[in-house]
Design goal:
6-stranded mixed beta sheet, 5-stranded mixed beta sheet, globular, binds manganese (II) ion, single chain
């Protein structure tokens, strides 16, 4: 179909830079794991021994490739930070066995699962979907993707977030309730995972509110830092 048959110009997939690679990573979907660190589940008032992790999605307009300036979003007075390690899928598949899961990983990155906590809390209370709390424009700034041939597979190492030079979140990737192979295997029983899918793997304890003017640095051992300014 030629362009003149389209009512307007379609948006193209967000493109994420790749470390030491001229190419870019076109994003297909954004999956997120909820409550994948026990301490964070507890700080949100949940029992990680009784409630296993689960998934939700963010829309593609949430991505801010490379991080940088993020505009404080509409309709919230309680924007929260959640620092997360991101898995980038490079090989499609469904019903993937845990033992094969890492073969589907293209690389890793760092992202923020920004959350309109007030809207999420309202949704939880009313047993409604989380979309308004989790999926919004610029709600997912992220770094370039580091390929596995450069960083290996990340299963342990420090993950942290500083806000205005103060450490607010700190944990270790080895504290994840579901590790990366389990996440991929589980998710691939519900969706045909495709090259271009991103998976945010959950946040350690210490989430909190952000203000305009805040400067954030996200770190995961073995990956380049994420820098974000809330404007
Ligand atoms: Mn999260």
């Amino acid at each position: 179909m030629s362009a003149e048959h389209l009512a307007f110009k379609p948006k193209v997939s967000p493109l994420i830079p790749i470390v030491e690679d001229e190419r870019q990573f076109p994003v297909n979907r954004i999956f997120c794991v909820g409550r994948n660190y026990a301490e964070h589940a507890r700080e949100m008032g949940n029992d990680p021994d009784r409630d296993p992790p689960f998934f939700f999605l963010k829309s593609l307009d949430a991505l801010v490739p490379g991080g940088g300036a993020v505009t404080y979003p509409m309709a919230t007075n309680d924007l929260h930070h959640e620092i997360e390690m991101i898995v980038a899928i490079g090989l499609s598949g469904s019903e993937i066995a845990k033992a094969d899961a890492l073969g589907h990983v293209f690389g890793y990155a760092i992202g923020l699962d920004l959350t309109r906590r007030d809207l999420q809390a309202q949704a939880k209370k009313m047993s409604r979907p989380w979309d308004f709390g989790k999926s919004f424009e610029q709600g997912a700034p992220m770094t370039a993707i580091t390929k596995t041939n450069l960083c290996g597979h990340l299963s342990s190492g420090e993950i942290s977030l500083t806000v205005n030079d103060k450490v607010q979140q700190i944990g270790n990737l080895n504290e994840m309730i579901w590790d990366v192979p389990e996440i991929i295997s589980f998710l691939s029983r519900f969706y045909h995972l495709e090259a271009g899918d991103l998976i945010f793997t959950g946040t350690p304890a210490g989430v909190g509110a952000l203000d305009r003017g805040d400067h954030l640095i996200g770190r995961v051992a073995g990956l380049p830092d994420l820098a974000v300014d809330i404007i």
